[in-house]
Design goal:
This protein has 430 residues and is of the alpha+beta class. The protein is built from 13 helices and 17 strands. 33% of the residues are buried. It binds one RNA strand of 76 nucleotides through strand 2, strand 3, strand 4, helix 2 and strand 12.
RNA sequence: UCCUCGGUAGCUCAAUCGGUAGAGCGGGUGGCUGUUAACCACUAGGUUGUAGGUUCGAGUCCUGCCCGGGGAGCCA
């Protein structure tokens, strides 16, 4: 018999097939049995009917526990009574294993318990839907950049020093020296951009900050494009195109999952280019009107991030931040040297910063000065400085946080659900 | 790091003023031909996070510790 996956079941109407998976739930009623089987690609109901309630098939079925692994043999039937429109008329089953008493029952559980059983929680419908969307978002990101001629250049995870010198880094041993886990591939991207024109890196980033909020992970995934000769305006458009591309992909292919998550898709469907755009200076009075006491030189906090949604009802771009609150490599604006050509993209509905980026300093003298101002050790940045000596070029890039983007698309309350095994401040198990 | 809330059956929770620890789900047994977190009956299941203290008596009050949840700062 043919082994079929549940997601392909519609092509096997009235055929005898074989499904391999796990028992999600079962119900019985005298002479009829209902099995809900999942195989990782979907969920389907298998029925068995027999007037003799002591028949061998019923004996096998009745011995099954939640999450027991089994192979089901039967005929695919279209039936409007079944969820999904198809069900299996079971002729026989092979039990692979009778599962031990499964800790996650169909009733509700607390966060602590679920997080301790993350390895099993992944099997449940909601978690499955979020992570399926993750698969599509990651593929969309790669398709987007590959389709535009970007070269994927992987950057190292083990680095000799801080990329930005600000955030806390995880320290580790590198034979007889110290090494740090990378918090961004950007600086290396600037070197590969000079070699390949337009590049991106896509990998995990590690931040040893003791932040404990629903928007933070200790280990998260980030895609970082870098484009030689691009200026701020170019990179803003690239960011807009990327978000529109991802959204279009998810809305086309993952309606079903969004429905399982009960995500209101209206705010996602109205997203289009160009995004509302304002400078830091322009947005301040709007934030003050809404009750924020933020002043020039202050950074946005959680309340301000929520206000962006109330002001624009759309993801927005904020540009031209005060130089003092941004990283050392940010290119100053010619007309306002106290501001930099940086851009942050904020999601609406309070999901926070999705993208941070901008134009980099390409002038040798200015970069040297900034390194001094930030008290960064020149030796560690010698190679980075070289890029400004040998055919320097204006260039720009950004980083997009995959889990933040997913949290927003899926409407999850907490970012920890958007990655299979989240690393959180007080949780590294499982 | 700071603020805040919590830890009782495998899970989610209840337990009045300090006075015999209880319910639903899950497990077991039996019943039911269309169930949708099925339903009905019966049943087993407890060192109340931990170490002390107050008291005739502590799940409940006090102190320390451990482990978590929510939030802040910082960031993607």
């Amino acid at each position: 018999m043919t082994w079929v996956y549940i997601e392909d079941i519609a092509g096997y109407r009235d055929k005898d097939i074989e499904l391999r998976g796990w028992l999600y739930n079962k119900r019985s009623s005298g002479k009829i049995r209902f099995l809900q089987l999942r195989d990782g690609t979907g969920l389907i109901q298998c029925t068995a009917f027999n007037p003799d309630k002591d028949n061998p098939l019923f004996k096998k079925i009745d011995s099954l526990t939640q999450e027991s692994s089994l192979i089901v043999f039967g005929k695919v039937k279209e039936d409007p009574r079944a969820p999904g429109g198809f069900e299996i008329e079971t002729s026989d089953i092979d039990i692979v294993q009778i599962a031990d008493e499964y800790p996650i029952t169909p009733k509700e559980h607390g966060t602590q318990f679920l997080m301790e059983h993350r390895h099993l929680w992944l099997r449940s419908r909601r978690q499955n839907a979020v992570l399926q969307i993750r698969v599509d978002v990651i593929r969309a990101i790669r398709d987007f950049f590959d389709g535009r001629g970007f070269r994927n250049m992987d950057t190292p995870f083990l680095t000799p020093s801080a990329c930005e010198g600000t955030s806390t880094l995880f320290e580790t041993e590198y034979f007889d020296q110290k090494a740090f886990l990378s918090q961004s591939g950007q600086l290396y991207n600037e070197a590969t951009a000079a070699a390949f024109g337009k590049v991106y890196c896509f990998g995990p980033a590690f931040r040893a900050e003791k932040s404990k909020t629903r928007k933070h992970l200790i280990e998260f995934w980030m895609v970082e494009p870098e484009v030689a000769f691009a200026v701020l305006e170019d990179i803003i458009e690239l960011g807009e195109d990327l978000i529109v591309f991802i959204m279009d992909r998810v809305l086309t292919r993952r309606r079903n999952e969004l429905e399982i998550l009960e995500r209101d898709t209206a705010p996602l469907e109205r997203i289009k280019k160009p995004f509302p755009r304002m400078t830091y200076e322009e947005i301040l009075p709007k934030l003050n009107e809404k009750g924020s006491d933020i002043k020039w030189g202050g950074d946005f906090g959680a309340p301000e991030e929520t206000m962006f949604g109330e002001i624009f009802h759309h993801p927005c771009c904020i540009t031209h931040f005060p130089a003092e609150i941004k990283a050392f490599y940010m290119q100053p604006d010619e007309k306002r040297p106290d501001t930099v050509l940086g851009v942050d993209f904020f999601a609406d509905e309070g999901y926070g910063e999705l993208i941070g980026g901008g134009q980099r300093i390409h002038d040798l003298k200015l970069l040297e000065q900034r390194l001094k101002e930030h008290k960064l050790p020149r030796e560690a940045y010698e190679w980075y400085i070289d890029l400004r000596k040998y055919g320097t070029f204006p260039h720009s890039g950004f980083g997009l946080g995959v889990e933040r983007t997913l949290g927003w698309i899926c409407g999850t309350k907490h970012i920890r659900e958007t990655i299979p095994f989240p690393r959180l401040l007080y949780r590294i198990y499982p």
